[in-house]
Amino acid sequence: MAMDFAPLFRKDLPPPADPWTGFPEYNFTGGHQDPDSIPIEEISAAVTRVLAREGGTLATYHLESGPLGYFPLREYIAAKLSERAGLHCDAGQVLVTSGSLQALDLANAVFLEPGDTVIVEAQTYAGTLSRLRRCGVDWIGIGIDDEGLRTDELATALEALEGRKVRPKYIYTIPTVQNPTGTVMSRERRLELLRIAGKYNVPIFEDDCYADLLWDGERPPALRALDESGSVFYCGSFSKTLAPAMRVGYVVADWPVLSRMLSMKFDGGSGGLEQMVIAEYASAHFDAHVNALNKTLKAKCDAIVSALREHFGAAAEFRVPRGGIFIWVTLPDAVDTSRLAEVALAEGVAINPGAEWSADPQRGRHSLRLCFGNPSIETIREGIARLAKICHRETGIPALSANVAQPPIPLASG
The pTM is what? Predict the structure, then answer.
């Protein structure tokens, strides 16, 4: 007789995971990248070189580089940030993590206790919201416009919190190629954000994971590059530029913060081979790779924008992203995208419903996030056409001339 484990499980566990059944035919979810852009030959050569040269260091935890991570990789990250983001740091200010999610987990472990308050953007990374929820903290969403987080709303919110004697633990922002909206915060807005955060003595968590995927204009300096007070801790990743399955991210912070994060990193060090290979590969190939990848992603973005305009028309409102792999779309009030996601998935189209990516789920219930990084251009076109047909069949939106005789069926909340 099989053991019943249910009485032994913790009472606060999330719902159990579903079995893996493979990707749907039209997958617009997740942060997946273009498969043809993975530099397989160069990575393979990098593996051979670095293992031949120093593979023996795999016999020790931390590759004989210490708990902050593989030293050549940390040196490369420091040089990369100086050149591409205007952020000057040294290898001793860089902690290598198992993807950017571990960086977020470490920050939360160091700063957050139940009942705390965090400032986020009104549309933001769903992984951040789920982690804040598990930490038992409150959050306040600040609106986004074409220049990123609205500092006028931020100032109003911080003033109100100060009146209640509440000091937020940090402001979480994705200033460069925001996830999910694709906006880029201007330099002037960054300086104003730093000024306001400094006035209320609130640190900033700068999530810069998509900053290298900017194809429209020159990127502004990182917030941390403009900060003179040491109040910004910075997070980056190679997942979105090289390969999501290579779980390598990093945090840049001053030692008082970094030392606390390091003391909460209980994993014995992030994967050593991945660190070695990325350092070996990126030092020679990163810039050329990213330049080529951005051309590919721009073409895919153009394809999804064209498909949305063709098949949804004026029913779909969106900003054209300036970079990255996502587009944030808002549909009329009759469309509950959580319900639409359920129906569409059953017919082979996967989307991220907006409620999961919104500080206020109710305000995001008519929006959706679409990832265009992984599907081919032809798949993008076919998938958006199918999504439009499903949406029309269920809601009457968009008004497709071929189907005007069909009565709309409202989506139920769910």
Answer: 0.92
